[in-house]
Amino acid sequence: MTAGAVAGSIALIGFGLDSLVEMSSGLVILWQFLHPVPESRERMALRPIGLSFFALAIYISGIGAQPDRRRRTGALTGRDRVGRGVTAMRRPATAARRATAGIPEVPPNGFCPR
Q1: Taking the model in full, what pTM does it have?
Q2: DSSP string of the chain?
Q3: pLDDT grade for 91, boundaries at 50, 70 and 90
Q4: Is residue 71 domain-resident?
């Protein structure tokens, strides 16, 4: 992340932050499974993981929404790039939601009814 800040590279900073989020998520999962009954810690483990990914998304979206002052007229602004990215991700998310609509959730005991 330091090299990204020195170079002024949003991509390097984002990669560093993503690595930090992944590492902290792994530590939270390790903490969960060190307990004799890991299912009892599942809800507590999901919150920090979800919040860290959400914070990363907010950071990346905020940086991406800033206009790039080095570009000349006619280029997409940061806000346009973020808008197009969100629009592009809507289709796969909708398809995944439709594909899994009829699949029942796994009950807490881990066995699916047949």
Answers
A1: 0.51
A2: -HHHHHHT-HHHHHHHHHHHHHHHHHHHHHHHHTSSSGGGGHHHHHHHHHHHHHHHHHHHHHHHHS--TTS-TTSPPHHHHHHHHHHHHHHHHHHHHHHTTTPPPPPTTSPPP-
A3: confident
A4: yes
